[in-house]
Amino acid sequence: MAGSLAMRAVQSSAASQEDFYKHGMRSLSPDSPVSHVLEGLCHFREQPLTSPSQFVRPTSLLFQQAGRERRWDAVQAHESVAAMLHNSQLDAFIVVRQFRPAIYAVRWRAAKAAGLPEPPPAAGLSYELCAGILDKPGKSAEQVCCEEILEEVGYRVSPQQLACCAGSVISSAGVTGAPQAVFFAQVDESMRARAGGGTMAASERVEALSLPVAAVDAFIADASLAKTPGLCFGLLWGRQWLQQQQQQQQQQSSQRT
Amino acid sequence: MAGSLAMRAVQSSAASQEDFYKHGMRSLSPDSPVSHVLEGLCHFREQPLTSPSQFVRPTSLLFQQAGRERRWDAVQAHESVAAMLHNSQLDAFIVVRQFRPAIYAVRWRAAKAAGLPEPPPAAGLSYELCAGILDKPGKSAEQVCCEEILEEVGYRVSPQQLACCAGSVISSAGVTGAPQAVFFAQVDESMRARAGGGTMAASERVEALSLPVAAVDAFIADASLAKTPGLCFGLLWGRQWLQQQQQQQQQQSSQRT
What we know:
Shape of chain A: globular
Mean pLDDT of chain A: 92
Organism (chains A, B): Tetradesmus obliquus (Green alga)
Oligomer: homodimer
Number of domains of chain A: 1
Protein name (chains A, B): Nudix hydrolase domain-containing protein
Helix content of chain A: 25-40%
InterPro entries (chains A, B): NDP_pyrophosphatase, NUDIX_hydrolase-like_dom_sf
Low-confidence stretches of chain A: none
CATH topology of chain A: Nucleoside Triphosphate Pyrophosphohydrolase
GO molecular function (chains A, B): hydrolase activity, acting on acid anhydrides, in phosphorus-containing anhydrides; metal ion binding
Distance between the termini of chain A: 64 Å
Structural class of chain A: alpha+beta
Number of helices of chain A: 6
Keywords (chains A, B): Hydrolase
């Protein structure tokens, strides 16, 4: 177990747990800094799921393949949307940081199995795209995405301002199969409508962060930070979009002169 | 439901179900073409998970946050590794295609809810990085990764040939929290040891595909193809690596002259 990815992460997060703003990251949600996200996290424990769950609905998929009966166990999950935002004034991407119980649990179990002390709550911090589930009938993916952007990071973006990075990525092809649409938008502080940080109603504690474009490669390569592949994809897609914009502007200005 | 991402995918996959080699993709596993992957898939149905499952172990995570008792339902899943491969002779990336019951189920439910006919089995095809779970104690992530490369796509790669794209991505931060290490390697046909296509023992039916580097953007933008965000990240990371190699070579040759 000591060689597992989770164990490597426990060791590196224990070593770097105090440095919450590596790679030039800055908080953009003054009401929800990392201290708010981690406030009073304690008394972590685990038990088998016995009562029905709104979010984890285990299911058995049965089918025939080449004449054989097969069974594949899976989980029903919601469709979702995600957004990669670039702030043109800061020349930074907008990243969301929150405590993810499932990530903490993986590291907590690994430490337990190795006879090590319980990891600090910061071991459950995750870096992700601003995102949300599609559970509002009658609303388009683009509309839900704009609502999530407003709630989590505080910018007012219209559906028309969204570019599509990928129409249907499947984060968990083996377990849930649920699709996610990934969008991109450019924002600036004139579009700020609220502080961000999630909604009180959902008792969300989310920190909005800016990550300088110049720090993208170092951020992705930092194995001590738990991040989604969707975020890694969004960061590279966004940087490529910026480079293409720059090239177009250079061509236009060289044609003028 | 008709506006859902799954329903969009059902409609677009019904329209394009016969075109299995879009974007210049070519099969690299002659024993396991798409017809083998889809062979005899039928009689799909679903029932609640009642007996214990090796792959889907539902769990309740309990903790306190800011003085409140909280519960988060999750699923225990294996750690895993994934590899993005570039074939220098073909100037193409190596992509894996397989039938994913969980993806098919999402589209099958959407069609059912809309009163539409059952989608074709091809609606469950997924495009992914070559990958595998870390379930062999005592083996490093790099060793397991090389074994998966050999099994799924047939190239003999040594752990020393792997570059790290990202040390700890979490595909499903909400549901499983399980980390995955993503590696990159460059291969050519002199490293081919077998046909690829998965192992008979695991009754895997996997197709290895080459995807031309020049087609990466069109592939990612194609919403009719179900792909993981990890694959989208790997493709952009790999292309960036190739561009950096090219620039270094140009600099070296210009210094020489």
